[in-house]
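User:
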Amino acid sequence: MVTSSRKVATLEDDRIDELKAFDDTKAGVKGLVDSKIVKIPRIFIHEKSKINQFPVSCNSRLSVPIIDFAGIDEDETRRSEIINKIRDACERWGFFQIINHGIPTSVMDEMMDAVSRFHEQDTEVKKQYYSRDFSKKFIYNSNFDLYQGPAAYWRDGFECILAPHPPEPEELPVVCRGIMAKYANYVMSLGITLFELLSQALGLKPHHLNEMNCSEGLLLLGNYYPACPEPELTAGLSSHTDSGFLTILQQDQIGGLQVLHENQWIDAPSLPGVLIVNIADLLQLITNDKFKSVHHRVLAKKTGPRISVACFFRTHFQDGTSSRPYGPIKELLSDENPPIYKEITIKEFIVQRYKNGLNGISALSSFKLHNHAPEN
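Assistant: Predicted structure:
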């Protein structure tokens, strides 16, 4: 008679074999869809209790704040209004949307087209970039945490390290080579502005966060979410928080992004020309929980593909600055507001993130000081 522990071990072995077989195709989720499957493989099936842990909001008045950046450099009163709105959004939502942000619509559209072109080219061409070596400047794969996460999600993606040490042009695929540097320049400039505004929202001097190198590193993800035959059984991206200081996202008209706010999922629909900005874990750590890194997810959908471009402000494994220690900013601490987190390096934080994958638990909980209870 097989014991229950042996059954569990056998099931886990089977699951790992299935994950490896999927990984070895190097064709990603798009490869499954191209093969005309009507049932999703069990490695993609999520526990219903996890998917339905929080209800989806029916309150149409609840929406991610939209902040207009028009006139930000022309009028001190206008700038103060924007800073106040950013402060409120970062404390209450961890997310906000921005318009009149300075990135031309044509550049945004060209970047989205490049992501689509990459993922829709012949699989044999894409395979040369398929890798799980995250020290490379450009890689493509499906599920960065394929072997660590509790279930795979319905998404392929490429990631590219764009700063502080960008790749040589020949290291990038031809189909997206021309736009990557141009897009990165616009996003880096916007990031510097955002960190100035965030510094002021914290009551610090405008250059404080930039001088801490928060805007130095940039990692771009080109996400591709194919149409799913059974979207209710899986997720485009499971509930998670982001691992850097700040994320700037653009998504296409299909939408699917949801933000956890007051224990309910709020839709963040796509709006023309809008960028979504969210606080990430390292900014929550250095602001000592004043600004919140909030859980969010992407739904799998019958329609697709959904395209998005996510830019993460943080350095990566091999960059020298990844060894710099970061802890709660001393100017924000007091007897009434003692440090919640210990000092860590970006490298320590990223290693922890890649080790655990998107398991629904904030990576910050591992770095809390002993006098603070860990998060759930």
